[in-house]
Amino acid sequence: MKRNLLILPVLFSFLSITLLAQTGHEGHSNSYGYGFDFWFGLLELPFLALCIVYAFLTAQALKGGIFGKGMSLMAWGFLVMAIGHLHMQIDHLFGFNIFKTLLGEMVGQLFWVIALIITWGLSGYGFYLLYKAARGN
């Protein structure tokens, strides 16, 4: 099962790089109308998803305790980060800002800042718990 999870991002990367290799370098766009930004933006998403899957699998394998709790917090932080990256790619590539459309300009920006605080707060506290446990405190 572990090799199957790794095959998807590797295959996606290979296909993306193959398409990039077929593109002209003039203006960083290819004959399909998609440039390097598009392909590199899409390239990050399957690897981020794979990291999230393994973060949750690792947290589950640690079966609770301080290490499991720390890894679980990090996994949730990574999941919030992935949602943010998906949002950024949609905004960058298609010009559609989900948060601003659904929540308005000011609340959408505030929601974005709160999402960043949640991401780094969960990840940072998870790392702190792992550090504390590793030092025997």
Write up this protein.
By secondary structure, the protein is mainly α. It has one domain. About 80% of the residues lie in helices and about 0% in strands. The protein has helices spanning about 1-20, 35-60, 65-95, 100-105, 105-135. The longest helix has 30 residues, at about 65-95. It is flat, with a radius of gyration of 18 Å. Residues about 25-30 have low confidence and may be disordered.
Strand content: under 5%
Mean pLDDT: 79
Q: H/E series, N to C?
A: HHHHH
User: Rg from C-alpha positions?
Assistant: 18 Å
Fraction of residues in helix: over 70%
Number of strand elements: 0
State the secondary-structure class. Answer: mainly alpha
How many individual domains?
1
Low-confidence runs (pLDDT<50, min 5 residues)?
A: 24-32
- Determine the N-to-C terminus distance: 36 Å
What characterizes the major β-sheet?
A: none
Number of helices: 5
Which geometry do the CA atoms define?
flat
Concise synopsis of the structure shown:
Helix content is 82%, strand content 0%. It is mainly alpha-helical and 137 residues long. The protein has one domain.
Question: Layout of helices and strands, plus pairs?
Answer:
Blueprint: H1 2-21, H2 36-61, H3 65-94, H4 98-103, H5 105-134
Helix pairs in contact: 1-2, 2-3, 3-5
Give descriptors for this structure:
mainly alpha, 137 residues, 0% strand
